[in-house]
Amino acid sequence: MPGYFKDLEKEFVITNMKPRRPLLNYLWNETFLAELSHFGFGKSFLRVNAESRRHLILEGDAGRMVYIKDRETGEFYDANRNYKNYDFDKHECHVGIGYQNIVSEYKGLEVSFGVTIPQNHSAELWQVKVRNTSGTSKKISVVPSARVDVNLTWHLAYGIADYDENIGGLYFSHDAFDIEDLYEGIFFKADTPHSSYDVNAVNFKGLYNGWDEPQGLKAEQLSCRSMSFEQEYCAAMQFDLDLEPSEEKVINIALGVVRNREEAKEVANACLVKGYFEAAVKTVKDDADRMDSVCSVKTPDEYLNKTTNTWLKRQISLGKTWGRVYGKGFRDIMQDIAGMASFDIPMAKKKIMDCLDHMRINGNPIRQFEPIMEVPYYDGASWIPAAVLVYLNESADLSILDEKCKYIDSNHVDTVFDHMYRGLRFLLDNRGKHNLVLWGAGDWNDSIDNAGNKLIGESAWLSIATVKAVKEFCQILEIMGGKEDLLASISKENEVLKAAIIEHAFEGDRFIYGYNDWDEKIGSKENEQGKFYLNPQTWAVLADIVDYDTLQKLMDGVEEKLKCDFGYIQSAPPYSKKNPHIGRLSYFLPGGYENGGVYIHGVTFKIVADCILKNADRAYESVKLIRCNNPKNPDPGVEPYAVSNMYLGPSEPNRPGYAYFSWITGSAGWLYRGITEYILGVRSEFNGLRVDPCLPSEWNEVEVSRIYRGATYNITIKKTGEKSVVMDGKSLDGNLLPITPEGSVHTVELTY
Amino acid sequence: MPGYFKDLEKEFVITNMKPRRPLLNYLWNETFLAELSHFGFGKSFLRVNAESRRHLILEGDAGRMVYIKDRETGEFYDANRNYKNYDFDKHECHVGIGYQNIVSEYKGLEVSFGVTIPQNHSAELWQVKVRNTSGTSKKISVVPSARVDVNLTWHLAYGIADYDENIGGLYFSHDAFDIEDLYEGIFFKADTPHSSYDVNAVNFKGLYNGWDEPQGLKAEQLSCRSMSFEQEYCAAMQFDLDLEPSEEKVINIALGVVRNREEAKEVANACLVKGYFEAAVKTVKDDADRMDSVCSVKTPDEYLNKTTNTWLKRQISLGKTWGRVYGKGFRDIMQDIAGMASFDIPMAKKKIMDCLDHMRINGNPIRQFEPIMEVPYYDGASWIPAAVLVYLNESADLSILDEKCKYIDSNHVDTVFDHMYRGLRFLLDNRGKHNLVLWGAGDWNDSIDNAGNKLIGESAWLSIATVKAVKEFCQILEIMGGKEDLLASISKENEVLKAAIIEHAFEGDRFIYGYNDWDEKIGSKENEQGKFYLNPQTWAVLADIVDYDTLQKLMDGVEEKLKCDFGYIQSAPPYSKKNPHIGRLSYFLPGGYENGGVYIHGVTFKIVADCILKNADRAYESVKLIRCNNPKNPDPGVEPYAVSNMYLGPSEPNRPGYAYFSWITGSAGWLYRGITEYILGVRSEFNGLRVDPCLPSEWNEVEVSRIYRGATYNITIKKTGEKSVVMDGKSLDGNLLPITPEGSVHTVELTY
Lengths: 752, 752
Hints:
The structure is a homodimer. By secondary structure, the first copy, chain A, is α+β, with helices and mostly antiparallel strands. Chain A is built from 15 helices and 44 strands. An 11-stranded antiparallel β-sheet of chain A has the order 1-2-9-10-11-12-20-16-15-14-18, with helices on one face. Chain A has a 6-stranded mixed β-sheet with strand order 21-39-40-44-41-42. A 5-stranded antiparallel β-sheet of chain A has the order 8-7-13-19-17. The first copy, chain A, is globular, with a radius of gyration of 28 Å. The two termini of chain A are 35 Å apart. The mean pLDDT of chain A is 97. Chains A and B meet through strand 18 of A and strand 18 of B.
């Protein structure tokens, strides 16, 4: 690992500042997001509307810098990146919940560069602390600089930047004609008097210099020149500080995107109130503490404890607000909601309704609602009941079912319940010649994108997912009560679908993936490549579609055919022959994405399936295989505090096991639920808290502290060989803990 | 100036390798273009179709590099960029016609890095020559590297690169699904055996290194590893060479974009035939020599001679094929055609017809046909007759009028003549309440983009331009003969239009720019800002719309109101108040683009207008004001061998006189015609070659050698105070030189 967890602070401290790939952290609120590498580089932006973002910091090198200059010698260096590879005494990045802090020590100066964002502004807050660790007094300059994104159009003639007296800071404007919702400006202001500034990246850096050696620092002071019509701007301010031995000085900076100069002044001043940085950090930290307390686990696996209690929740929270950051997918966010409903009930409700507003009137949600991606995927609706059911179980708030939601292509408005049912009807009513659900332009497997476009092909996986969804819908109907007719009729429909799946998609040891538009099987014994897919088997378990023995056989096949040193590949053998009847999947090189890559999302489905079949060791081994500390896949590149979307598969010739796309994946939600609800077995139901553990053989005792309906359950699970459940000293029949008054605290001991 | 002209070679040698901004050169054929900075950086791409380009070299830093390593010490440097600022004995860039050559000398090695492109392939040819200028033998490695653009989609899983035995070079593939006209591959092959290679930019450069110090060079050999799923690739090959004192070795490299491996092999081999690089350079050079011989001038102004004879033609040639590089505008290319018809008649015909294919059936050409820009500008058709007339005058080839052209929005096909007439009808038939031509979404002045969208506003400038176009059309009708009825009727229409212009757009000392959709005048005395525009006055002269004295008065106004130290601003005073009834022009900061910037295109119109009014000194002074060697605007940043699109105007607070957008401007064509046809006065007419000089007072004698209808006219013009024209010893009446047999050579002396 490139560092260590600092538990009390909920930090991961990166000590290897040259990891295999840059390690990312995300800071965000509901409308603003910053993506920071361990050097502090990376874009940040305001969400203006579904189709448009307004960037503050440019993607790429040197986005945020803190230069330090010795005013006596003129020597300078940068404290966050250390471009020149100086021999720093310390150089580390503290990745925190909602902040990041890069700490360096060099030539008797400790510099810490903290970044956080406030909850209510489209802004970043920087805090630079400089401490004199030498024995002599020092005269230094601190020069923070930001590569700000000023040119919103290619017309350079709108761009102008200068120090603005009224704002008391730098202001960068691009007041373009005829742009709606124009955030013309960027401000950059400090709480400390500056001695000089620059606004022009070309001038500050020097046209022929690099960010390792900005020419602006070679003069005693920065240029203090305004600039206009420039290709690239920067916000740089020089602060001349004198430090006695052991003295520390702190500079707070706010920078943000705004509509105009008045707003700049207002926001900058709000963000530079004394203690604002610390308060912003505390807000996020307090919320993380609150979320941690909702479900806190203690197992013999320390890494699992840390990530489950804190970091997976952080990652899921990112997903529920920002989707996959590059875009907000309907099904992605629905899954994240199911992942986070337990620790943020009101937000889950809000997000369910936000998502449902993006259903088409025909019952098929759009694939991605920001930016709008209209491709007619067919799986959207199958993800709704699970999210709603988790919400109901967690909250008992039936009112959500009557909340009103919109449609994306109609003025019609109806309820969450209506949307959910309309979605299922779309699935149940769009069937093919084998009576399976149509495939459309895609389902979970985005890369089988040319199998069902003609609306002939049928997806077996989506049919199985529909069975599961209808079952969850039936549970909701039971919770609602008085829906017996619908319950009966839709259950019957579900049985018909199930029968069709078994008749047409079952091959004894596997479920196929489907029939394409040319009535060719995909994921079948008959195929030469892509003969066996992971998800149809795991979802057969999730949907409980055949008997236990058969399900075990399917999952044995998974172990046998798909397992590799760092997880389970999505299908085998990988395609090497390009097949337009499948789509891009077969054009991907073997080992990439769904074509023989370890798609971690799929592995997390498998973990749940293993637990359902009580294959505890398989489940736990899967958890360990996909982790960054798997000794068989040393240094996959992933952040130890985030789950990745995939590893390159074993058939990839150059970098098998290499991790792409951390943070932005549905894997976090499913892994979190797999660990807490299935391995540890503590999951909310409508009538109580189920404790149904599936502990690996190497664990004998675990503790879970869980808040459910406002009451705290401190649960100890022990393997004694004897089945018993004792709550507050009283023995219970079965493993469903009863609902208890809000605020009450209970001790539960479960043995088995 | 950042270097000097080397006349015999038609080179400009850049000796200041840190100029104010990177100096560009373009290399191109009909389908492939490379944009090279003086370091050899810059994108290159294949035109796949109107909407799509396939890049070979990535935009930005370090696109093309030549590293040199001493194999005995392990020390290395780069010979083209000199990132580390080593104390080179020589470092210069030879900008040639169709090639570029960066020459350096350091530690006893002279390295020259030549780049050219072939005429028939989408490829670059590199030639690296290394000469040992020291007294001792040397063991070195030469490592050329290219930042190639491999990932055509964001699906990294399509990308794979390695050495390909069959090709005998590196091959980079991105065989994506479902892309039409897919050029999946890039090859990179040398004619010299390599000792190692790398294909992975991250590996070669090092994730935490810069291009100044690639980590790949720190080992004895490059990795020789394949790579896939990578973010960025590079093509790098190491050649280990031993050089005796004075010995020179040459490595030829070809790199290009192709559809597949077979094509890669074929093209690479074709490009590496012995002498191919030299032949490719010679082809372009020969064509430049040929073009120079068509019109070669000798005046007391050496800079004018060099640029007129060679570089302006080169710039116009770029325009006629690639438009403004970022896109191909109808009117832009039409003007470039008028600029180049004299020196490339067959190409002029081809390009006229290409352009006309992009007219709408209503007679209004689209603003830009690559990529398609449908904005309903109204001026397109006004540029056609001039180009056709120049072609006819130059070639006497009336057959062009009967050539068939398409329409962009109809299956109808008719002739060049029909298109031209349909275009004029569009202008004449779309008139507003003052009987002026409608403004639409824009005319020449792109930035008045919200004055006429409602199709109420009328452009006075466009009305004047229409008068000029109709006059040119009438000349064509006269040339054609037998068109008396049309000639009479359209001339009459033109008189009506002219009368409307004078009635509604003339204010005594100026023509206004127009009336907007709200019936407000723009460019009028009544306005607070933007009271006086350049183009309506100069075009009033070009269209000969009022009497001589009035025209002089208009042009006096130009001198008085618009002149600045480096040209004439487009309108005065610049707008500082944003006015949505004008459009983005008024949102631009004062001094930028058309809002008080020196739009050089406008100044070149003025030069022609000055000559028409025989204001010779004004014309020549204008030529000198806009040049890079104007002492009042030292170092505007522009390439001495290219004309820029604009200078920031005097009202710009930070960098007045700074040049943007060199090469890609219609200014080159107009400046070329202004100098040769108006100042020197040698212009083709249908019935002969006109010699109508307008020499500045400081010139007494000039020579022009001109090929017209295949015959060569060696013309000397002298100011003697006596009017005479003598051709081949015989006195002529008037200044129209007669048409003479192809191949004949004539001596002409004109005095006045």
